[in-house]
From TrEMBL:
Residues covered by the Carrier domain: 1052-1126
Pfam family membership, one: AMP-binding
Keywords associated with the record: Membrane, Phosphopantetheine, Phosphoprotein, Transmembrane, Transmembrane helix
Keyword Glycoprotein assigned: no
SMART domains: PKS_PP
Matches recorded under Gene3D superfamilies: 1.10.405.20, 3.30.300.30, 3.30.70.1990, ACP-like (1.10.1200.10), FAD/NAD(P)-binding domain (3.50.50.60), Hexapeptide repeat proteins (2.160.10.10), N-terminal domain of ligase-like (3.40.50.12780)
Protein name per UniProt: Uncharacterized protein LOC107477067
GO molecular function: oxidoreductase activity; phosphopantetheine binding
Gene that encodes the chain: LOC107477067
Amino acid sequence: MDPKVAIEDQFSKLHPSFPESIRIGIVGGGPSGLSAAYALARLGKVYDLGGQVLAASSAPIIFHLAKETGSALEELDSHKLAIINPSNGEYQDIKVADDYVSVMSLTLEIQEKVKNSGRIGVHGVSDIAPELAPEYLECHGLKSVPKSVAYGYTASGYGFVQDMPYAYLHEFTRTSMAGKIRRFRDGYTSLWQKIAQSLPLKLCCNTEVLTLRRNSDGVTVNVKNLNGVETLVFDKIIISGSFPLKYGRTYRSLPSTCTDCEPEVMDTSDLEKELFSKVETNDYYTTVLKINGLDHFPVGFYYFNEYMEDPSTIGHPVAIQKFYADTNIFLLWSYGNSTDIKGPAVTKLAIKTVESMGGEVQKVVLQRRFKYFPHVSSQAMKDGFYEKLESELQGSRNTYYVGGLMAFELTERNSSYAMALICKNFANNSDLPMFPYTKSLFPLRTECQEMDPKELGELPGVHFPNLPTLDGYLRQWGTHPITQDRTLYTWINEEGAPVGQRTYAEQHLNASCIAHKLLTSQKPVIKPGDKVLLVYVPGLDFIDAFFGCLRARVIPVPVLPPDPMQRSGQALTKIENIAKSCSIVAILSTVAYHSAVRAGTLKNFISLTGKSGKSSARWPNLPWLHTDTWVKNSKNLALNGLDDQCEEAQPGDICFLQFTSGSTGDAKGVMITHGGLIHNVKLMRSRYRSTSRTVLVSWLPQYHDMGLIGGLFTSLVSGGSAILFSPMTFIKKPLLWLETMSKYQATHSAGPNFAFELVIRRLESDGLAENCVFVSCAFGERKPIIVDWQGKVCCGYTQQENEDIDIRIVDPETCEELQDDGKEGEIWFSSPSAGIGYWGREELSQNTFKNKLRNHPGRYYTKTGDLGRIIDGKLFITGRIKDLIIVAGRNIYSADVEKTVETSSELLRPGCCAVIGVPEEILSAKGISMPDGSDQVGLVVIAEVRDGKPVGKDVIEKIRTRVVEEHGVGVASVKLVKPRTISKTTSGKIKRFECIKQFTDESLNLVPQGPQTLLKKTLLRSYTTGTCGEGNTPRPRLVRRTLAASKRISKNDIVEFLKGLVSEQTGIPINNISVTDNLTSYGIDSIGVVKATQKLSDFLGTPVAAIDVFTATNILELANFSEDLLSKIQPQPSSNPTNVPEAETFSTELVEEVSTSKRFGIHLLQVIALVYISIMLASPAYISINAFLSFIPSFSISVDGIPWSNYLVSLALAPIAWILCIAVTCICISLFGNSFLRPNYALSSEISLYSMDFVKWWALYKVQEISSKVLAVHLRGTVFLKYWFEMLGARIGSSVLLDTVDITDPSLVSIGDEAVIAEGVLVQSHEVKSRILSLRAIKIGKSSSIGPYAVIQKGSVIEEGAEVQALQKVEGGQPVLKSAKLNNVDKNAEVPSFYHFIGIYLVSFLSSLAAAITYFMYIWFSKKSPSFLHFSFVCICGAFHWIPFTIIAYATMFSDVPSNPITFAISFAGAYLLHGLVLIALSSAFSNLLIMSGIKQNQYRTWLKQQVTISCHLRFAKLLSGTGAFCIYLRLLGAKIGKHCSIRAINPISKPELMTIGDGVHLGDFSKIITGFYSSNGYTSGKVEVRHNSVVGSQSLILPGSIVQKNVILGALSVAPMNSILQEGGVYIGSQSQPVIRNTMNNSDKNIEEMGTECKENANNLATTLHKKVSDKVTLTRTWYQSFSVLFIQPLMQTFLPYFVVGLSVFAPLDLIVHQKNATNLSLHWFFPMVWVLSGTLAALACVIAKRVLVGKNKSGEKVPIWSTRITMDSTWQAVRTLVGDFFMDMTNGSYFLVLYMKLMGADVETDHEVYVDSNGALLNPEMVKIERGGCVGKEALLFGHIYEGEEGGMVKFGDIKIGEDGFVGSRAVAMPGVQLENEGNLGALSLAMKEEIIRSR
């Protein structure tokens, strides 16, 4: 057997060489005998054997048997291998690996020769290495046998190496090189016992073979067993016993040991005597001793080299083994000679050896003797022993030998040889078998559950009547006193709860009611015999309508209900065709469904997508009748006498029409009669033994025959009951099927194959893999599942002349029955259950349903169109008759050839190939020559190529060659067509006859001539020089083709998506999934796709009817349906791309050249998108401000008479207007953002940056991001934030706590009940990489918890109850573990929503109050009179605060602007500065008041204080970053801040009073201090202390309870875990619970040495970078003038100057809009967007100028003191940049304009190429940044061109950052100075690139 080929595959290609009647016996039940029996069973045989089981080692064959029998294996622990001195017990290790390596090349060389020889067993190597081992190795360059090999060989019982031919050592060596050793958990014997018990044969245990006599006719074996002596007769015999070896001798013994005196068992021939007399066997002993004194020996094998190398010492132990460390049991291995050295002598020598080693033998536990390893001498091998054995002895006298002599004495060799012998002598590998045969599908699975179906019996007083119609049974049971009140049908929902029921009486009355309404209908008039469509979603309404039709004798036509909201689709097209073909008079349905159809029709009527070139299917213009309304109204009416109108139907009358799928032509309606239907139901009742006690469970589709007849009618006719539920409910919850059967004690249920597979898979996924589902097959006779030689599964057993159903195999050409067993032909059947014809197609009906056979007069047979055969009364279906092509007299199956074609080249699309037979005259007319021997028909191949794949002549030649090689026929023509153009049915099957027509008419959509170019985004080899120097070779601008760019590509994407779903469910790699006609033959079904129906709806971006998906049977059917669904909304495909010379590529990804005009067009679209974003953000503010102005007079009147009442009203209403703005903005984005901008997310799961879809997505992404950052941020921690994101499209469960607004693409986010998402979490469903936007949904499970500032990336699935730690990232498919409970947890009750509303109001009110105070301070200083209008403006500005909203308020409320822009800018900046200072004072006072207050709800107090802090921080305090004023601000809030601290852009602190910062502490940019956060355990809080001179790196996180001791360095993107202590002088890197640590105090490394090289380098790098002299002196000490500057001058500059710059930029646009307001009557809101964009652009240009003026250009490597004027100017500019970003530029992130902005500020960015930057963090030091083409920077990523170095006084060092071509920096990643991303380098999300680190491509 070939070890590289699966055993299953090797047997699948073999056929038996002998008929099934042959009798074969096997003597000996060891591994060889049992393996031979197994191989025979695989070939379909059943034989006798007997004997005892032995075992040896493990290998591929054994592993296969173990897997098939379910035998558990376990890996052995590593053992010591050593040489031991028997005189003193000293041992030394042996170099095993080196020894085996020394012979490895020789072993492989020999094995290659054996493989090519075609021989099996030792025979294969006997001619190659027959020489003695030392002699052979010396000839091959080795002085001796390596010790490990020699000692291992001898110790294993194979004799001394100097005596053995090297052929045996080779067999031993190649097994010993196998690797890890495993053993069977229950011992080797357990394996053979399981095989023996499982094989389908008679096992003769405890049986002694007395005699064995052979002749030319057969073999006679006399055996003795418990029943006495018995004679067995066989045709062939296989001997694996040892009795033929009696003629041999014992190894190293005297000749007198020959056993000729033993009685003859087998009549031995002279040849057998000659050969077996040359065989020697080893006398081998294992002795188990209990020894004291050797406890110091480790577990292992110890070789006695003194006895190993000297055969004269035979009897002494050659090895000793200690198995277990905790025992004193040892095993010794020894040889005897069967004469003077036997058991006692061996034991004595073993004890003597132990004593000489210092041990004491307490007990001899056990000794066993083996006649082991039959072998021959070197000379015998050279004389051709094995050649004679294999060529002359094997098979002579009907005898075959297996065992260690032939195979080498190893279990693996024995098994392998035995199976190979069977395959060689009992089988053949020809294409066709010598005779038809069958075999058991599971040869080792013969045991089945022994049980007889329980006889249910009838209910008391119930007797089954023999009635002619279905309606007759409904009348019978509906009026029967015992059954009428019993429940007939129960409909359950997804939770398993009943939602509808029908008793027999109710069903009877409902049928009568509907029948009455039908027959008395006037519009339309309906008569018996008329046909009506039944269009119902699954439910009891369908059943009512169906039985009503039967009672009225109206013919129902059940159809698939289309999605009512879709314009067309397969189901609607089919309904339209059915209505036309059979004169439908009305449509029966429900009010709800009809209403949905009307709404869908209206939607499609007004939809712009209706302007498509294709015609759409329409609902038939027929009246709709609502049967559910009839039934509902009938409950109030008397229905007595209704049945009198309805006559009883006759058996020959048509009952209903069942329409086919149309896979081989147009859909045809099969006429089912009442008699045929009731016969079929009665037959099933009889077969399945149904009675009135039957409880049936069914989820099968009601419009399908399996669900309709098998699910609904069987229970009714039997008088039983049925529990029903929707197919989609089953798909979503497969285990509900089992639960329902258990709950209702079901007696019957049925389902297709995939349903059982789905249940099993779900059990496995739930950890219930050991459970099994017992399935009773329809055979019902405990017979095994049978397959034929082609692997076709038996479909059932046939009975000749059966009155119920008679099946015949007929020649389709002659229409004559094929009498021979196993002959293939068309399957015909005759049964009263058959249909009587196709409606309206008499000729076709006659040809299909009215066929006769000469030998069976009086019977009509129905043609099935299926090919099949009958073998021994077993029916096999082999294919379709229409798939058969006869070429040169040979039957060629299209499906078989198509499989060959599809696998011939990877450029062809699987499942998209048609092989057709074309007449010679057509081929000749086209100038196509016929292949030799093709006769009158030639094969033509039509195959689709993959999207964009280049196609050359070599592909066509491969197809021709493969077809000839595998099928022996030539191909006349090969036509390669474009993707998705081959003709298929609605179910995804190839329309071969349509392909013939297209080939004849030359209407195939052929691929264009000439190569198509696939170009990659980066290095292209020069067409002239063959080289590519960086920046020298001209390179076209490239971008991947948008998946949504054409319908063709969209469908391919759909197919790939569906394949991914199938892969997800089945575990099959995507690359191995083929889309084929016959899913069963490829092992692929639709279950994975069907199970993911909801995902498919999200993927398409439009609802998909659940029932459409359920009925799909394969990937192509779903893809076709999806394509039809999307055909009206996708743009038409463009013309073929221009051919470009083929270039050397480094990727196969599809890209295309981008023209300058297209680039310009995309940039223009981004400008329009910016305006549209501005409209969506400005309009709500405008509406809210106008509402505020409208309400003020009304409220002022109500409080008239109160001093300053109107001022108070204005102050009170301003926060209300702000809250209104939040609500209106959310609604506006939902209506005008999601509806118009949201792409079909997963349909466009990969979108080019240069596409309309990207611009739409980007606009929606930005408007959601900006609105969340400005408005929704104030809803954090409240239920209103949940509502906000739900309005934006997220699916969020109940009791979810959201404390973050960083949720991108909400429509792709699903959050389960009671989940908690903490502060700063980024939930990002997209990623832009290599110029492609990719989108994948995120699911956060129920009760899960996401820690602060974690990043959840696209495609992530966080399971229920899982917890993501702080500052961790989760990628798609990454497991998330549950964390421990937290300390310091506040779990107060949930705060009522009203309190949250009041809190939101108070936050805004504080800002309005601060503005009011500011205004009155201005009035007081300026000595001016107050103005109510001005006051109202100030209040509204204070509430809204955002500069764009301030502009809108000003333009709305005033008609003039100051004439001097400088004056305006100074006023603007001064107002914001003063407001900020007052706001800080009010916020600190309010926070301290909350701390001292007695508010009982501690959680609410914490939340409210946090909201006040957030508001103050975002509106003003963040501009103070890095100044002494910021420290003062924190102190006002309650924090304890030391002297000379540098606190950069940190987060808002929720509980500042819990924070303590020591002297000289540096908190890096964007570092986070968390004093409290939300989790699934509640609100967790704790003190945070950072002591003197410590440094906290950028983006690092300090969690509650942490203490950072003095002189600690916490690296960038690192975490100080909760309740942790970072030891003094330590360097901590990492975001895990135990970061890398280096101690700078004493040079000791706590756990850095346990880390990898990269971690060590990072730690050392950071420690070196931030090294400082450890002392108590404050590192960041400032001079008095530096302190003055930091405390006063720098804060003033960082607040006043940014607002001044923005005010100056706003002036001109604001003046323009006010002027237009005064000069025209146009509404202001039309101007706001343009003014915003214009002023924002001016502000950006002003920021660029400020950069050049304030900062200039920093140089790489330059160092600057942290308190220097340059750093002060840089911080001032950073504040300007921050404010400009807040005002406008943040809105441009991810667009071309941000890249241009960077370029203007000094960044080296390729603006002519595709660069994507979605973070203002790339602008920290723009002149230090270089981004090459294709570079991508993710959301909130930080590119630090500077780094803080902790020298005395504090220094800042600058360094360049380079992102190479297609380099990628993920979201929130941090790149430090000197970092270089090589071309295609990848710095993942939340990753850190240390100083001067090089990120290489993967």
